[in-house]
Amino acid sequence: MVGEASDGAQVLKLVASQRPDVLLLDLQMPGPGFMEVLEQVRALLVSLKVLVLSAHAEDQYARRVLRAGAVGYITKNHSPEELVAAVRRVAGGARYVSQAMAERLAADLAMPERSPQEMLSNREYQVLALLGRARASRKLPRAPSCRPRPSVPTAPDCCRNSNLKTTADLIRYALEHSIGT
User: How many distinct helices (H) and strands (E) make up the chain?
Assistant: First the structure.
């Protein structure tokens, strides 16, 4: 172990200065958005193997973080022994997901249709997560790169790639799937 960081900015500094082989990255860390930090560390150190640690169920984030360049995903409800095994596996050059997630990924290969959230870009998913978090505050956060289309004022540009056509569809989907909570 070469270091520990309490937020995304510290992660970036440590990766630049220590150049680790493996990064155990917490999905809920403070600071810059998780996907932004993942993209920046991957750009900073291409050989870095990123294992994502999360309190969120694998079906919510695992596919997305693997597509973004992480080599593994483990939830916080796994035992310390399983976490050590995951780090060793990733350090050895392999990928890591739980057996249950591996089975879901294999089953997905046979299914031609993707869920609406899988069709969203990382930025679109980030906006959807913000909508999910807004349920507690009843106030929608600002999403600067997601603006209403003039022709359909209730449908943000960021949902054009999915079956979610209105802001209400987005909010309902975010709440039903516990996205952002």
Answer: 7, 3
Q: Give me the phi and psi of 23, to 5 degrees please.
A: -120, 120
pLDDT digits (tens, 9 = 90+) for 18-52: 999 999 999 888 877 788 899 899 899 999 999 99
Helix axes 99-109, 58-67, angle to 10 degrees: 70
E strands present in 13-159? 22-26, 49-54, 72-75
Question: Domain-by-domain residue ranges, the chain?
Answer: 8-109, 116-176
Which element (helix H / strand E) includes 135?
A: helix 122-137
The encoded tokens of residue 120 equal 């969203």
What angle do the packed helices 58-67 and 34-44 form, to 10 degrees?
30
CATH topology of domain 8-109: Rossmann fold (3.40.50)
CB-based contact 19:54 (threshold 8 Å): no
Mean pLDDT, residues 75-102 = 91
**Statement: residue 179 has pLDDT above 80:** no
Residue for token digits 């050590």? 84
pLDDT at 167: 66
